[in-house]
Amino acid sequence: MEIHLTDLEQAMLSGEMGPGVRRAMEIVVTLGRIYGALDLVPVSHVQVSGVSYKNLGKAGVEFLRRWAGEGARVRVPTMLNPMGMEEASWRELGIPESFALPQMEVVRAFESMGIQPTLSCTPYFIPQGLPHRGDHVAWAESSAVVFVNSVVGAYTNREGGPGALAAAIVGRTARYGYHVPENRLATHRVRVRARLETMADFGALGYLVGKAVQDGVPYFEDLGEQLPPLPDDLSEGGAAIDRLKTMGAAMAASGSIALYHIAGVTPEAKEAGESIVRSEAGLVEIDSLREAYDFLDRSKDVDRIDLVSIGCPHASLAEVKLVADYLKGKRVRTRLWITTSRHVKDLAKRFGLASIIEEAGGRIVADTCTVVAPINAIGVKTMATNAAKTAWYAPSHSGVAVRYGSLEQCLEAAITGRWK
Ligand code: F3S
After folding, report:
1. For a substitution probing ligand 1, which of 51, 314, 344 has the most ligand atoms within 8 Å of its CB?
2. Considering just the CA atoms, what is the radius of gyration of the chain in Å?
3. Does residue 249 have its Cβ closer than 6 Å to ligand 1?
4. Per-residue DSSP letters for 341-370?
């Protein structure tokens, strides 16, 4: 069946609003046709990925420059995913100029389209980046997608970089996938008997559930018993939010999960109860996290650590505070990066947390992360992290050996230089 377009959407498609808008509408409509959408749905917010020069390369920069040159501008608030370095400190961090200059061209091209250079995968920690329950949005970064669908209860598909940018330019996306309520029903029940204490445990759980459920929708029957209560203001982070963001990121990495429900906790599960689960749903039981730790902490022969990486997905202010509290009066021997957004970094400076971390020899690094930054170009060969997503991707994306464990284990490794 042909996709229904309004007069305005038709005008965009026929080029009446310029070639940049036509290109965007062609992408949105093509995606709609591929996935059987009947019409388009307005979006209130967009998050664009594919920002790091490490992934884009020269061809990607040229494509963006051409699109921006066609006069394309975004119609709704739009934020950017992390790039490959921190703009304010790339020289100090040792990033080569041959990477930094084209990287900044990418950001300038996005800015010329009206996109805010938030450069973060946790836009929900930026007050104007937190959608409401039931909003349709078009987000691209996989951990942000699973968070906004599940914890906020907004509706998004897992957009690709060009698809999200196209949605921002036309202010709409095709109505298919997770924009359709029926597709948001759970495909698997999950029972968790393993005890979860640390964020790393939640990441390990996410790894196992992602592997088991792949692109389905898990419904956690009893996980609420092991979660602290959700705060009223999600943008503050905190124990529950930080656990859910790392768990979702892991599920989206080892599987391609874009939505989950937790009985009594996440908004749709609270509203619909058991009726959110499909009658034919499968069952996944998690009795132990051992298999996950065996995989994520697989470089067991590595004990000397070059870089400790905290903040994947980008750290909340609450996580930065945990690090500062631990490091007060101590000194680190390795490089220690707490990666986060400019917004959270500014808050950390205002509350005196950044100075504690810097006095200990660590740094809060905005705009980037240790997966999208060219860390092998700055001499990093071994890394420790409490983030399952980093442990999953860093070996293949950056050629580093990774140790995986709790925040305390990681910070001890930073202080002693060794993994215990
Ligand atoms: Fe974000 Fe980088 Fe992790 S983009 S989710 S911090 S791999």
Report:
1. 314
2. 21
3. yes
4. -HHHHHHHHHTTHHHHHHHTT-EEEES--T
**What's the pLDDT tens digit per position in 85-119?**
999 999 999 999 999 999 999 999 999 999 999 99
Give the C-alpha distances (Å, rounded to integers) separating 51 from 30, 98, 270, 393: 23, 16, 36, 17
How big is the chain, counted in residues?
A: 420
Contact criterion met (CB below 8 Å) for 316 and 237? yes
Compute the distance between CA of residue 242 and CA of residue 314 in angstroms, rounded to an integer: 10
Q: Band of the pLDDT at 128, cuts 50, 70, 90? A: confident
Q: How many CB atoms lie within 10 A of CB 86?
A: 23
344-345-347 Cα angle (round to 5): 65
Tell me which DSSP letter residue 287 carries: -
Contact of 52 with 142, CB cutoff 8 Å = no
- Which pLDDT score is estimated for 253? 98
At residue 35, the 3 state secondary structure works out as coil
Residues 6+ away with beta carbon under 8 Å from 349: 355
How far separated are the first and last CA of the chain, in Å rounded? 60
CA of 387 to the centre of ligand 1 (A): 9
Angle between helix axes 407-416 and 317-327 (nearest 10 degrees) is 40
Query: Ligand 1, atom 5: nearest CA belongs to which residue?
Result: 313
Cis peptide before 313 (omega within 30 of 0): yes
